[in-house]
Design a protein that fits this description.
With about 180 residues, the chain is an all-alpha fold. Among the domains are: about 50 residues; about 30 residues, no CATH class. Helices cover about 55% and strands about 0% of the residues. It contains 9 helices and no strands. Helix 2 crosses helix 3 and helix 6 crosses helix 7.
Length: about 180
Amino acid sequence: MTEEIKQLENPVPEEKDKGGRPKNCGKCGKPKTQCECGRPTVMTPDVLSKLEDAFMFCFTDEEACLYAGISTTAFYNYQLENPEFKERKKALRLHPNLSAKKELVEGIKGNINQARWWAQNKMGDEFNERTTIKHEGGLELSGSVPEGALEKAVGAFNEVMRQTLIKRKPKPEPKDEKPE
């Protein structure tokens, strides 16, 4: 008889660990520490697709994992093993910004308010109503300043600036009313 037949006739009892689980792999028979079979990954193409969808809608990592049906541990382990996935996640989260920008730019055509908003917010140097004051240097005070006087002076300055800006603000255009 061959050695294999002898083992089948007189099987060696399987070694167990302290928890009663087998020490060897059920597939290849190697000790589990040397086994290369491993557990199947949960990161299937379907799961990766769901994660990408979730990140396109700016889900948090936890929300994306819940949506895809995986644990955050599996997700973070995958991310560590696949650094390109982390970059892809970052890029996917920009998708809503791109969509919003596209809508804004397309909405400018024929819409003066939309065009004004774009000019004020994206071409601020030329069209912004805000005033920027830049102070370089320090503030030197001579003598003693009574407690709270500095805060009072800054508050008064801010109020004067606010009133000045309110006076400079253009009057809003009347909204187009549609006949009913």
